[in-house]
Every structure is written in structure tokens, then in C-alpha cells.
Design a protein that fits this description.
With about 200 residues, the protein is mostly helical. Helices cover about 65% and strands about 0% of the residues. It folds into 2 domains: about 90 residues, Rna Polymerase Sigma Factor, Chain: A, CATH 1.10.1740; about 80 residues, Arc Repressor Mutant, subunit A, CATH 1.10.10. It contains 8 helices and no strands.
Length: about 200
């Protein structure tokens, strides 16, 4: 039982991988990539609502990690540090693309008239609840600025003062964006429920 700290099959622990990756060990970096790739990808996907962009941004986040891992001091959990770096990668991408990250006036309405495809048959047990696909569709349909604030606050758990610093807006603006995002989501989900109820 001398090697109880090491996982079975002689893989590196996260702490060992971090230390070895700081020294340029490619195998250790691969261990970190495999441990965190899903979480980083899902964050990028939630913030962009675009699978191709999420894949590119996940790669960019890990490139940043490779470049900056030597600066990790362990003052917070590694996953928290990587998460924040990934959020910054996505926000920089959104700024470069010129998307209205935080725009109060110009809310781009997406094609609400487009018919939606219904997946599978209705489940009577779940008829009154919000299904995850509907919710994800509603989040994806939010204007980019609303979606960014909503994901950072309600999904990722950042406070308004943190979001204001990351996005480059005022705390009041962040709160306003979140409120409007929630209103749009409620409206979408209410409409979606009414359409389901109207079907024979």
C-alpha cells in the first residue's frame, strides 16, 4: 500500500501532472487535457452556442494553458484557474468577432418564426416540466450579450462584480442584461409550453 496516493494503472495525479507540465512534460500535459477537456468544451459551447466555435475555443484554451501553466501558483484550485482562463479566451473571441457582447439597445432578434423540430414523442410524466433541450434551445436563441451574462451568472456562478470586470461593463449593466435574458427565456419557454398544449 505504499503507492496509495497514485491512481491505479500508474497514471499521474492532477498535482503531479501540473508540476511535470510546468517543466514541459508533454505526457503530463496530456493527463491535464484529458481530465479537463469536457468541462472546458461545455463551457465554450454554453457561451457561444456553436459547436465549431466551441471546439476551436477549447483548443485555444488549452494552448493558453500550455503557455501559462508555469504561472499557476496553486492559490486556487487548478480547475478554477483553468475555468477562468477559458472564460477569458471565449470573451476575447467574442470581442474580436465584434459581437455585441453587452449591448442594451441592439438586441438582435433571431428568426422566431422558424418552425422548431420536435424530437421524440411526448412523455406524459414530463409534460409539465421544462425539458433540457427546450431550455438549451432557449439559451442558444438569446442575443450574444444576454447569453454571455446569463451563462456567466446563472450557469457558471460568477457574481455581477466579477462579470463586470471580465466583460468590461458596469455592475448595473450586468444586472440589467441578466434580467432581460431571464425575461426572454421565460417568454420563450411560456410560448413553447403553449404550443405544446395546443397540439392535439
Amino acid at each position: 500500500m505504499t503507492d496509495a496516493k497514485k491512481p491505479q494503472d500508474d497514471r499521474l495525479s492532477e498535482a503531479e501532472a501540473i508540476e511535470r507540465a510546468k517543466g514541459g512534460d508533454a505526457e503530463a500535459f496530456e493527463v491535464l487535457y484529458n481530465l479537463h477537456k469536457r468541462r472546458v468544451y461545455s463551457l465554450c459551447l454554453r457561451m457561444t452556442a456553436n459547436t465549431a466555435q466551441a471546439e476551436d475555443l477549447t483548443q485555444e484554451a488549452f494552448l493558453q494553458l500550455f503557455r501559462k501553466i508555469a504561472t499557476f501558483r496553486g492559490e486556487s484550485a487548478f480547475s478554477t484557474w483553468l475555468h477562468r482562463m477559458s472564460v477569458n479566451v471565449v470573451l476575447m473571441h467574442l470581442r474580436k468577432k465584434g459581437l455585441p457582447v453587452v449591448s442594451l439597445e441592439e438586441t438582435i432578434e433571431t428568426e422566431e418564426e422558424t418552425p422548431r423540430k420536435e424530437l421524440g414523442a411526448q412523455d406524459p410524466v414530463l409534460a409539465g416540466s421544462i425539458n433540457r433541450l427546450q431550455l438549451q434551445r432557449a439559451i442558444d436563441d438569446l442575443p450574444p450579450g444576454y447569453r454571455t451574462i446569463f451563462v456567466l451568472h446563472d450557469v457558471e456562478g460568477y457574481e455581477h462584480n466579477e462579470i463586470a470586470g471580465m466583460v468590461g461593463c458596469s455592475i448595473g449593466n450586468s444586472k440589467s442584461q441578466l434580467h432581460k435574458a431571464r425575461m426572454k427565456l421565460r417568454e420563450f419557454l411560456k410560448t413553447s409550453r403553449a404550443e405544446k398544449a395546443a397540439k392535439p
